[in-house]
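Protein modeling request. Please complete all fields; requests missing the sequence field cannot be processed.
Requester role: graduate student
Desired output: 3D structure, token encoding
Chains: 1
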Amino acid sequence: MTPLSTPDGSVLGNSLETDGTTVHRFLGIPYAEPPSGSNRFRPPVPVSPWSGVLDCTAPGPAAPQNPESHAPPGTTPRTWSEEACLNLNIWTPATEGPARPVMVWIHGGAYLMGANSDAMYDGARLAAAAGVVLVSINYRLGALGFLHLADLLGPGYGDSSNLALLDQLEALRWIRRNIGAFGGDPHNVTIFGESAGAAAIGTLLGMPASEGLFRRAIMQSGTAERCRRPEDSARISATFLELCGLDASSANQLLTLPVERLLEAQAALEQRAAAESFAVPLPFQPTVGTPSLPLPPLESIGNGVNFGVDLLIGTNLNEGSFAVEMRPDTGSDPGYPDRAAAVLCGAGVPPALAPGYTEALTRVLGREPSGKELLEAAIADSLYRQPSNRLLDARQAAAAGRLAHGATGEGAAGKDFAYLFTWRSPAMGGKLGACHALDIPFVFRHLDAPEAAFLTRGKAPASLSDAMSRAWAAFAGTGTPGTERLPWPGVGGQRRTMVLDGESRLEADPRHEIREFFEAVRLLPAR
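Delivered output (527 residues):
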């Protein structure tokens, strides 16, 4: 194909046939200057326009990261580069004609790993089937994206603990400036992501600087509560310095240490975090009380930040099954209740009240849960399902508050839609159930991909993938995921939720007993 001219410069992509549709693909486009050298641990700098034609026929490198410890055998570690990691990929059915909805994918990976070039995130099929322009972005990970250095290196590094989010905002600014050249509508942008990608979106929703950069958001297994106070982030930074062989007086050496040395210290920090957390070790998270994130995201959302953004949010039924089934230190059945109580305690449930959670789960199941079921459900509810419910509550509170103050002229409230994904993977004899990340190949239409084979085993219903991908695209285009095949009303007062399975159905407040338990705990007087 001929080079495409954009406001930032000309790019050369290639074309491919996907399910009978021609899709144009542009890979590895830089959206910011290299975050290395003097730019390490600093906010992203917008990319300078380039001269000539930029070859965008191959993916760019990932952000620096360690190899995945639980990657399937034979998996090749991602190629990374500190200098060139801030890049994005674009798939578009056409660069001319009516402007198309834009969907921007933010990958997951516990803020430690992942890349926009991962095969499961190839956007060709979704772009071809749904007629959207799909973009996937890279952002800084681990210490390079989240290390809190404000107290160590001075005010010039006041936002070093939120660089990953600032990268995402810079990518969105690049998209707003350039996506029209690729056939996209810069005024109709939807951000979507899974796991850490969805948690990033939950945080972006609470960042004042993000307002106006996207119109809609889709959060798959996410939360708006994954953040830390400055003092907690400072303690992690002190530990990281120690692992690097440094202390506060020599912290400026972080600016010049080889990336490999930073990754070695990061791996040691990850091991410590894994030993301390049974659920999901998360040594790096955004920090509140900083210039870009002055308040906890959930509080900002409740105050009306991104009030007009439409939201589609949901979780998988068995989000905690990987942590329970695939860790060797799970222990014997009598140990499960204690581990579940520890997970719940981390979510604000006092140990004395943990039996109340077991009672609520018993009412949901219609029987007493096994030890494994209890622990898996505690992880799912503590980290994913109930934070999603609280985010919906915060948005509804913001809408009610504006109405109460007569703020009707400031734009309409964004619409809210919810789902619960329940199709069970046949992997490991069905033990994983509707596990974490199982929804991704359904949305991207990759049920037959080798990377999905372990979970789908060739038995995943293509009809569900088609329904989900079209619902996601419909939401991006119109603000509602409802289609002729899958009518989907908003959450409303009944907490209407689409249960996505081989036969999808609408339910009012599924598993409400557990939500009500968490609400009751939250409303208890502080001790």
